[in-house]
Write a structure and sequence with these properties.
Rossmann fold; alpha/beta; 2 domains; five-stranded parallel beta sheet; 258 residues; single chain
Length: 258
C-alpha cells in the first residue's frame, strides 16, 4: 500500500500533472470562457516556470543544502553502503547493466573508494519495483558492473529486497548486524542524503555521509539570460526536487526518519 501511495504522490507532485489538471479544468469550464482561458494561461505559466533552469536550480539547491558531508578521507571504512536508483528501471537489462540514470555517480564514486582502499566492502542496496521474470535485482546488476571494473567479488555484498529508501535502511541494518560492521559510509545523491541518513539513523545506524551527484548550480552560474529559457530537462529536475521535498514530509509523518 505504501508503495502505491508513494507512486501516487510522485504523480501529484509533478508540475506536468498540475498543467494537465488545469487544462482539463479549463476544458470542463469551456462554457465560462473567461475562467477557462485563465486556467489555460495558468497552466502555461506553471509549465514555463518549472521548466526554467533558474527555478530548477533553486529547488535543487534547496534540497541539497541539507546534505551533510562527514566523509573522512583518512578513515578505512568497514563498508560503503550504496543506495539504488542508479539503473534505468524501464531499460532493457540484458545489456550487462549499461543503462545508468543521472545518479550514476553513486556507483562510480564507490568504485573510486574501493580502488583507493577506503572501504573493505561495498554493500549494494536495491531491489526492483516491478521485476520481469528472471531479471536480476539492481544490486546484483551493480555488483556485476563492479566486478567487471576489477573489484573482487569477495569485497561486494548485495541486498536485493529493498524497494525504497526506508527499506534500504531496514535491510542494510540487518546485513550490517550480521557482519558486525561498525565504521560505515553512506553514498547517495546530495538531494537524497538528508532523507536517507534519517532512515538509517532511525534503524540505529550512524554512517558517515558522502553526498554525490549535485545538480543545483550556484546562483552566480544560474543567473543568466539562458537560465530563463525553458527546457524539458529542467522540468524534470524541478519535478525531482519537489518529489524529494514531499518524500521528506511523508517519511517524517510515517516515522521512517529521525
Amino acid at each position: 500500500m505504501f508503495l502505491f501511495l508513494s507512486r501516487l504522490l510522485d504523480l501529484l507532485f509533478a508540475p506536468l500533472t498540475w498543467v494537465l489538471l488545469l487544462l482539463v479544468a479549463g476544458w470542463l469550464l469551456r462554457r465560462r470562457a473567461a475562467t477557462a482561458w485563465r486556467l489555460v494561461a495558468l497552466a502555461g505559466a506553471v509549465m514555463l516556470l518549472f521548466s526554467t533552469p533558474v527555478v530548477a536550480d533553486a529547488l535543487m539547491r534547496w534540497t541539497e543544502a541539507s546534505a551533510p558531508l562527514t566523509y573522512r578521507p583518512d578513515e578505512i571504512y568497514d563498508a560503503v553502503i550504496v543506495l539504488g536508483g542508479v539503473m534505468e528501471q524501464r531499460a532493457p537489462w540484458k545489456d550487462e547493466g549499461r543503462d545508468l540514470t543521472d545518479a550514476a555517480e553513486r556507483i562510480t564514486r564507490t568504485l573510486e573508494l574501493m580502488r583507493a582502499g577506503k572501504a573493505r566492502v561495498a554493500l549494494l542496496s536495491g531491489g526492483l519495483l516491478d521485476p520481469a521474470p528472471g531479471q536480476p535485482s539492481e544490486a546484483e546488476q551493480l555488483a556485476t558492473m563492479l566486478e567487471g571494473w576489477g573489484v573482487p567479488a569477495d569485497r561486494i555484498v548485495v541486498e536485493t529486497v529493498s524497494r525504497n529508501t526506508h527499506e534500504n535502511a531496514v535491510e542494510s541494518a540487518r546485513v550490517v548486524a550480521e557482519h558486525g560492521w561498525r565504521r560505515l559510509l553512506l553514498v547517495t545523491s546530495a538531494k537524497h542524503m538528508a532523507r536517507a541518513l534519517g532512515c538509517f539513523r532511525r534503524e540505529g545506524l550512524s554512517p558517515d555521509a558522502l553526498p554525490v551527484d549535485y545538480r543545483g548550480a550556484r546562483w552566480e552560474e544560474a543567473a543568466s539570460l539562458q537560465s530563463w529559457w525553458p527546457r524539458a530537462a529542467d522540468l524534470s529536475r524541478s519535478t525531482d526536487a519537489l518529489r524529494e521535498l514531499a518524500g521528506r514530509v511523508v517519511y517524517r509523518v510515517r516515522g521512517y526518519t529521525r
